[in-house]
Amino acid sequence: MDTWLPSLITATPQEGFELAITLSRRGVKYTQPDTEVLHKLRPEYANSAEGLTAASQVIAINFQTVAAANNYWRK
Amino acid sequence: MDTWLPSLITATPQEGFELAITLSRRGVKYTQPDTEVLHKLRPEYANSAEGLTAASQVIAINFQTVAAANNYWRK
Amino acid sequence: MDTWLPSLITATPQEGFELAITLSRRGVKYTQPDTEVLHKLRPEYANSAEGLTAASQVIAINFQTVAAANNYWRK
Amino acid sequence: MDTWLPSLITATPQEGFELAITLSRRGVKYTQPDTEVLHKLRPEYANSAEGLTAASQVIAINFQTVAAANNYWRK
Amino acid sequence: MDTWLPSLITATPQEGFELAITLSRRGVKYTQPDTEVLHKLRPEYANSAEGLTAASQVIAINFQTVAAANNYWRK
Amino acid sequence: MDTWLPSLITATPQEGFELAITLSRRGVKYTQPDTEVLHKLRPEYANSAEGLTAASQVIAINFQTVAAANNYWRK
Question: pLDDT category, F44, cuts 50, 70, 90?
Answer without folding.
Answer: confident
